[in-house]
C-alpha cells in the first residue's frame, strides 16, 4: 500500500490520528505539525524519549544561547525577560508586516533609555528611529506601565537592565545569522516551545536530562 500522504513510499505504520497506514517518513516529518498525534501514539512516545542527535544538539545550543543572554539577571529580571519575549512572540505588526530582530533591538533600546532617564528623575520618552520599532514600543508600553505601577523605582532599574539585554541579544542574533532577520525571535520561540512541550509531557522518560535547562516562569 502506498502512503496516502506522500503518494510515493510504502505505508507501513499505523497512524492512530488518521486511522490509516502511512510511511515512516511522513510519520517522522509531519508529526505534530500536519498530523494531530494523540499522546498515546507509540511512535510519538519513542520520538520524545529518543530525539535525533541533531535535535538534541540544537536544543542544547539554543538553551545555552538564551542562558548567555540572561547571565547575571536576578529572579525578578529573569521573569521580566520572559514576560517581554512572550509578548514579542505574540505581537502582530499592523499591515501584515513581519517583526524582525532589528525592530526589537531599536524598540528595546529606546524603552531602556526611557526607564534610565526616569531613574534619574527626568521624565522623557525616547523614541525608536523606525516606524515598525516605534509601533512595537507602543504595543509593549501598557504592560510595562502596569508593572511599573506596582514596582516603582526598583522596576525602572530592572526594566532598563532587561530591555538593554534584549536589545543586545537581538543585535547579536542579526550578527550571528545575517541571513535570518528573525534569528533572535526564532531562537526564543524554539526554546519556549521546547519548555512548554516538556512541561505538558507527563512522562519523565521523554525529557532528556543531559543538557542545560531554563525554567520559564
3D structure, described in words:
It is built from seven helices and two strands. With 217 residues, it is mainly α. It folds into two domains: 13-41, no CATH class; 53-200, no CATH class. The chain has a two-stranded antiparallel sheet with strand order 1-2. Helix 3 (53-69) packs across helix 7. The longest helix has 46 residues, at 131-176. The N and C termini lie far apart (48 Å).
Question: Can I get a quick summary?
Answer:
With about 220 residues, the protein is mostly helical.
Task: Sum up the structure in keywords.
217 residues, mainly alpha, 2 domains, two-stranded antiparallel sheet
Contiguous helical run count: 7
Widest sheet: strand order? 1-2
Mean pLDDT value:
87
> Which shape, going by the Cα principal axes?
elongated
Overall number of domains: 2
The percentage of residues in β strands lies in under 5%
| Total strand segments | 2
Largest sheet: 2 strands, antiparallel
Distance, first to last CA: 48 Å
Poorly predicted runs are: 202-212
What string, H for helix and E for strand, traces the elements in order?
EEHHHHHHH
**What class, by secondary structure content?**
mainly alpha
What value does the Rg take, in angstroms? 21 Å
Binned, the helix content reads 55-70%
Amino acid at each position: 500500500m502506498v502512503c496516502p500522504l506522500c503518494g510515493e513510499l510504502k505505508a507501513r505504520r499505523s497512524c492512530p490520528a488518521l486511522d490509516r497506514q502511512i510511511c515512516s517518513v511522513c510519520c517522522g516529518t509531519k508529526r505534530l505539525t500536519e498530523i494531530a498525534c494523540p499522546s498515546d501514539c507509540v511512535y510519538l512516545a519513542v520520538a520524545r524519549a529518543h530525539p535525533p542527535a541533531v535535535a538534541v544538539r540544537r536544543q542544547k545550543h539554543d538553551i545555552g544561547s538564551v542562558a548567555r543572554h540572561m547571565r547575571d539577571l536576578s529572579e525578578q529580571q529573569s521573569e521580566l525577560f520572559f514576560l517581554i519575549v512572550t509578548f514579542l512572540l505574540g505581537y502582530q505588526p499592523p499591515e501584515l508586516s513581519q517583526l524582525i530582530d532589528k525592530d526589537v533591538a531599536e524598540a528595546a533600546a529606546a524603552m531602556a533609555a526611557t526607564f534610565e532617564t526616569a531613574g534619574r528623575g527626568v521624565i522623557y520618552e525616547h523614541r525608536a528611529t523606525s516606524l515598525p520599532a516605534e509601533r512595537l514600543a507602543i504595543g509593549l508600553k501598557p504592560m510595562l506601565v502596569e508593572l511599573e505601577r506596582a514596582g516603582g523605582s526598583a522596576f525602572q532599574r530592572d526594566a532598563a537592565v532587561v530591555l538593554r539585554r534584549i536589545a543586545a541579544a537581538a543585535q547579536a542574533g542579526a550578527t550571528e545569522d545575517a541571513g535570518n532577520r528573525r534569528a533572535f525571535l526564532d531562537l526564543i520561540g524554539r526554546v519556549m516551545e521546547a519548555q512548554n512541550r516538556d512541561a505538558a509531557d507527563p512522562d519523565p522518560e521523554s525529557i532528556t536530562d543531559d543538557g542545560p535547562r531554563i525554567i520559564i516562569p
